[in-house]
Design brief:
The chain is mainly beta. The protein contains 2 helices and 18 strands. Strands 1, 2, 3, 4, 5, 6, 7, 8, 9, 10, 11, 12 and 13 form a 13-stranded mixed β-sheet that branches.
Length: 214
């Protein structure tokens, strides 16, 4: 099976082994109807949160763009969008390994965040104090923390399927810290306008947002 989530979408499903997957917008998951081999393998492009059913005899493998995550039973968030240079994995519970095509393994412990650079193949692992914010998207909550505007625009484009047109390059220097459970784009843009001297003009008919200095 192949499940494709478009921009502006989100979906959760239960796999045949009892594992649960939440898929973020603009993500694709390939998975079998039944797991018949010694390993439970799926293929992810985009972002997903996994709660993997424990089975010591049948490892769960999430194949990414090169590396793969090997799991026995655990809860974690993984992001691997094709246009992003980094694969980001955040582990809530259990133990996982990020395994490279060279068979090199990077073990991750609960509360840790792994960042793998697809360009230089370097991997860094760090402790996170606010791990929950990284997977709050599955509760329809947007969280930005010191997030540069270009990244904010990329995320909102995925969430709401609207195009952003930057009319003044000066706006790109600003960073945003915001937690919002607003489902309306207009409300989120109003919240962003309170943070920096940047104006967001939303044209609903054109599905376009003009970004410029106030």
């Amino acid at each position: 099976n192949q499940l494709i989530i478009p921009k502006g979408g989100e979906f959760s499903l239960k796999l045949a082994d009892g594992s649960t997957v939440w898929l973020n917008s603009e993500s694709t998951l390939k998975f079998p109807v039944q797991f018949t081999s010694a390993c439970r393998e799926v293929y992810l492009e985009g972002e997903a949160y996994f709660v993997v059913a424990k089975n010591k005899n049948r490892p769960f493998i999430v194949n990414l763009s090169g590396p793969a995550i090997h799991v026995l039973g655990t809860s974690f968030n993984v992001q691997d969008y094709p246009e992003n240079k980094d694969i980001v994995v955040c582990l809530d519970e259990g133990n996982i390994n990020l395994t490279l095509p060279t068979e090199k393994k990077y073990p991750v412990q609960p509360g840790e965040r792994l960042v793998y650079n697809k360009d230089n193949q370097q991997c860094t692992i760090s402790k996170m104090n606010d791990m929950q914010r990284l997977s709050m998207w599955k509760q329809n909550v947007i969280v930005f923390k010191d997030t540069p505007l270009p990244e904010v625009i990329k995320i909102l484009n995925r969430w709401y399927n609207v195009e952003f047109k930057v009319e003044d390059e000066n706006v790109l220097k600003y960073v945003y810290t915001l937690t919002s459970d607003n489902t309306l784009l207009e409300k989120v843009l109003m919240d962003l306008e309170k943070i920096a001297p940047v104006k967001f003009e939303y044209n609903e008919d054109k599905k376009e947002v003009i970004v410029k200095m106030k």
